[in-house]
Amino acid sequence: MGCQFSFSMIYRRTYRVTCWIAVVLLAIPGQLVMAQAEETAATSGPRPTRTFPHHGYQLEGIASWYGGKFQGRLTANGEVFDTNELTAAHRELPFHTRVRVTNITNGKSVEVRINDRGPFVDDRVIDLSRAAAEAIGITATGIGPVVLEVIDYRPAPTDRIVQVASYGDLRNAEATASRLAKAGLSPEIETVSTSGVYRVVIPGVNIQDIDGTKGRLADLGFPNVLVRESSRED
């Protein structure tokens, strides 16, 4: 019995020591991972905010172009897209900012005005109108390596245009504008010469007043309005 008891005690102690070693070994990798993560966080810090200086900012990447089915549609800032004009889409630059786009392959350059948003493909930095793409020679290939340079930076405006309705008949647009004026609003009528459309808009609405203006228009029977930036160059 004594020998059996001693053997049992030794077995239990050996088992406990083995388990303790296993726990320590399992814990060490986790501690190492946590230490590495803490060190990375301490050294990397927050990512810097991407900013665009007023002049001279440059960015290299791939340019593409668009047209076709987009011709005549509204751009992100409310203009009617015309692929024959020197305009472009950019994901971040304020509307009406002017950018020089240079084809790295052939050295050809063109100046464009930002009036739309895009392109939404990771490796592309700008989406040009067909006219701009032709100017730097990328219409055939569809894309090309370019350098962008900001030459006229336009800070985003603090007011907006609220587009209430569009009509093919001027008399209907005038009737709506008159109704809005009687309600205390300040409407105007925009004429889209290329399509013969008349838009009733309320210009110069401060961003902070957008919700209140939309609420007033909804009460007047116009719940689905379009809020956009200025469609005219300064």
Question: What order do the helices and strands come in, and which of them pair?
Answer:
Layout: H1 2-44, E1 58-65, E2 87-89, E3 98-103, E4 109-116, E5 124-128, H2 130-136, E6 143-152, E7 159-167, H3 170-182, E8 188-192, E9 197-206, H4 210-219, E10 226-228
Parallel strand pairs: 1-5, 2-4
Antiparallel strand pairs: 1-6, 2-5, 3-4, 3-6, 7-9, 7-10, 8-9
Description of the structure:
The chain is of the alpha+beta class and 234 residues long. The protein has three domains: 47 residues; 95 residues, Beta Barrel (Barwin-like endoglucanases), CATH 2.40.40; 70 residues, Sporulation related repeat (Alpha-Beta Plaits). It is 31% helix and 29% strand. The chain has four helices and ten strands, in the order αβββββαββαββαβ. It has a six-stranded mixed beta barrel.
